[in-house]
Amino acid sequence: QVQLVESGGGLVQAGGSLRLSCAASGRAVSRYTMGWFRQAPGKEREFVAAINWTLARKSYADSVKGRFTISRDNAKNTVYLQMNSLKPEDTAVYYCAADHEAWNDYQEYDYWGQGTQVTVSS
Fold first, then answer.
1. Which residues share a beta bridge with 22?
2. CA distance linking residue 33 with residue 56, whole number of Å
3. One digit per residue, pLDDT tens: the chain, 122 residues?
4. Which candidate in 28, 43, 49, 86 could, as Cys together with 120 as Cys, close a disulfide (CB 3.0–4.6 Å)?
């Protein structure tokens, strides 16, 4: 069993930055692929970024490429999402997810955090 707790969301003006954190606990959690997803009201949950446990592989949604950076500290069992140059369309609930084999498909992830709200004002 894996538990995930996100933090770091909030209200920010367009062009600003936020850093989200996801603290993970559970058996061998450092060996899991970690992903960030987001869901805006009335929209389907969408992929934002993912990182594998060796840190050798990362990927991003086209909409955030060049603005967001995913990273992880396996010693702390924590994954981060640094979000720069935020836009109003980035407004959503951001979720952290963990799985052994999933990548950018949210339906394949087994473990989820409770989500943290990010609101970007124009």
1. 6, 79
2. 11
3. 899 999 999 999 999 999 999 999 988 888 899 999 999 999 999 999 999 988 789 999 999 999 999 999 999 999 999 999 999 999 999 999 999 989 999 999 999 999 999 999 99
4. 86
The length of the chain is 122
Per-residue b/e over 68-103, b at no fewer than 16 CB within 10 Å?
Answer: bbbebeeeebbbbbebeebeeebbbbbbbbbbeebe
Structure tokens, 67: 């603005």
Phi, psi of 106 (to 5 degrees): -65, -25
With beta carbons less than 8 A apart as the criterion, state whether 49 and 59 touch: yes
